[in-house]
UniProtKB/TrEMBL annotation, chain A:
Entry protein name: ATP synthase subunit a
Any GO CC annotation of this UniProt entry: proton-transporting ATP synthase complex
Segments passing through the bilayer: 163-181, 225-246, 252-270, 290-309, 315-332, 344-371
Family: Belongs to the ATPase A chain family.
GO MF entries: proton-transporting ATP synthase activity, rotational mechanism
CDD domains tied to this protein: ATP-synt_Fo_a_6
Main localization of the protein described in the UniProt heading: membrane
Free-text function comment from the UniProt entry: Key component of the proton channel; it plays a direct role in the translocation of protons across the membrane.
UniProtKB/TrEMBL annotation, chain B:
Family under the similarity heading: Belongs to the ATPase B chain family.
Function: Component of the F(0) channel, it forms part of the peripheral stalk, linking F(1) to F(0). The b'-subunit is a diverged and duplicated form of b found in plants and photosynthetic bacteria. F(1)F(0) ATP synthase produces ATP from ADP in the presence of a proton or sodium gradient. F-type ATPases consist of two structural domains, F(1) containing the extramembraneous catalytic core and F(0) containing the membrane proton channel, linked together by a central stalk and a peripheral stalk. During catalysis, ATP synthesis in the catalytic domain of F(1) is coupled via a rotary mechanism of the central stalk subunits to proton translocation.
InterPro entries: ATP_synth_B-like_membr_sf, ATP_synth_b/b'su_bac/chlpt, ATP_synth_F0_bsu_bac, ATP_synthase_B_chain
Organism from which the protein derives: Flavobacterium gillisiae
UniProt xrefs under NCBIfam families: ATP_synt_b (TIGR01144), PRK14471.1 (NF011041)
Coiled-coil boundaries: 46-125
Subunit structure comment from the entry: F-type ATPases have 2 components, F(1) - the catalytic core - and F(0) - the membrane proton channel. F(1) has five subunits: alpha(3), beta(3), gamma(1), delta(1), epsilon(1). F(0) has four main subunits: a(1), b(2) and c(10-14). The alpha and beta chains form an alternating ring which encloses part of the gamma chain. F(1) is attached to F(0) by a central stalk formed by the gamma and epsilon chains, while a peripheral stalk is formed by the delta and b chains. F-type ATPases have 2 components, F(1) - the catalytic core - and F(0) - the membrane proton channel. F(1) has five subunits: alpha(3), beta(3), gamma(1), delta(1), epsilon(1). F(0) has three main subunits: a(1), b(2) and c(10-14). The alpha and beta chains form an alternating ring which encloses part of the gamma chain. F(1) is attached to F(0) by a central stalk formed by the gamma and epsilon chains, while a peripheral stalk is formed by the delta and b chains.
Record-annotated membrane-spanning stretches: 12-32
Gene3D superfamilies: F1F0 ATP synthase subunit B, membrane domain (1.20.5.620)
The name this protein goes by in its record: ATP synthase subunit b
Compartment(s) of residence: Cell membrane; Endomembrane system
One cellular-component annotation, GO: plasma membrane
Keywords recorded for this protein, A-Z: ATP synthesis, Cell membrane, CF(0), Coiled coil, Hydrogen ion transport, Ion transport, Membrane, Transmembrane, Transmembrane helix, Transport
Amino acid sequence: MVISNRPLRFIIATLVACLPLMTFANPEVDSVKVHTEVAHETTEQSHEGAHAEPTDVKSKIKAFIGHHVLDSHDFTFFSDEVEGKHYGFSLPVILWDNGLQLFSSSEFEHGEAVAESNGNFYAINHHDGKIYKTDASGKIIEDEKTGFPENERPLDFSITKTVLSIFIAAILMVLIFAGLAKTYSKNGGIASGAGRIFEPVVLFIRDEIAIPNIGEKHYKRYMSYLLTIFFFVLFLNIFGLMPFGINVTGNLTITFALAIMTFLITNLTANKNYWGHIFWMPGVPKVMRIVLAPIELLGVIIKPFSLMIRLYANIFAGHIVLMSIIGLMFIFKSWLGSSLSFALSFALSILEILVAFLQAYIFTLLSALYFGSAVEEHHHEEAH
Amino acid sequence: MEKLIHQFELGLFFWQVLIFVGLIFLLKKFAWKPILDAVNDREEGIKNALLSAENARKEMQNLQADNQRILQEARMERDNMLKDAREIKEKMIADSKEEAQAQGLKMIEQAKAAIESEKNAAMAELKLQVSTLSLSIAEKLLKDELSNKEAQTKLVEKMLGDVKLN
């Protein structure tokens, strides 16, 4: 049963894994293009009038989506536009700018005001949500061509919304899995409690991801990383679908950090064989070996790069599409159109849940695959 | 691409790496290792239990085969014993028959011999009796005859004549 299932599942998994490469290779630019448009529009608007907020519903939704996918220095659940009230809480801002600058993000008043700390002035840029150094007037000069601010940036170690979400996810994971681990000894080797629903998932990662891809001999070394990354990505993907407006795994910095860790682990634990296959491919003519070396070397970097882009693009695009369809409800403002887009957003949410699991699975599977290639031992040396 | 690079945030990267690496080590110590160990132990336990069950089954089979064999042997032994007993019985019967026959014959012989000797003894006694009787008769006769001389002579003459005839 399991054996007959495996090839099918792997084919589907590889198909889906390749899908974002094809679909997002071009639309990647597309989704960003939408974003760029937002930036340009608001840029123009801000050029016209200082801090001009978008007025019509369409551009308001665009701006909202644009802000949602970015990191934020305060945690806003929702805001009342009419009264200008924000419901949520502020987070600590930690900057390194000729010494430690520590203050609450409430000083920015949701990006409206200039914060002052030890005689330095900081302001949040509306377009990228980042903190820039400025003067008392809070002026941010933008590059004519790129639209990026030219102001100097302090080193920003703030506990942002994303950092807080990661913290919460990490604490949740420790509580769940340490709790699960404890139940084993209490209950005679059998899990009990709510955490036991994760036991089959842990076993799945061991039996279906780690062992087939890495091998019985080496898989134990990588289990901690694979399990942590799977649940980390899964939990944060699911967080993103909850109504708190969190977007962690759709943040390039996060996926970059995850991918670089896979990259480092792959290359630091790689054996002689792995490097041999990269720099001096056995079994091919000498000239070809010289040609193949740079290609293989490029592959070493492309592998984690694709990991980074795949997770980022999937979650980012999912958020954009889902929010756009939810936004359509307010644009239509009719019984038919709004309910249709509600139904569509409902269907898409379900799809996003699937994507949340799938992307966590694929990230883990591909990491395991790269680890497997790094520790693979070739028994067919004689054949070469 | 530039937009993507612009999105990169060093502070966030720092926190992410810090938290994630911390999380890996924390979970490794408190969660993954105990969980995987417990699961492994359980799997080993199940494997061992299955193996021992299989062994027990085999042992049972062996035992059963042994029992069967022992039963077979016992049955054979019983058969042998019965056969032996029958043989012995037959032999005993035959022997006793023979012996009885011999004994009977012997007894018959003895009886015959006894009868013979008894007969001889009886004959001897009879002879003695007859001779005594004849003597007494003769005596009496003689006494009578001797008183009658004439008759005596006549008788002797007659007897003598009888003897000649004999």
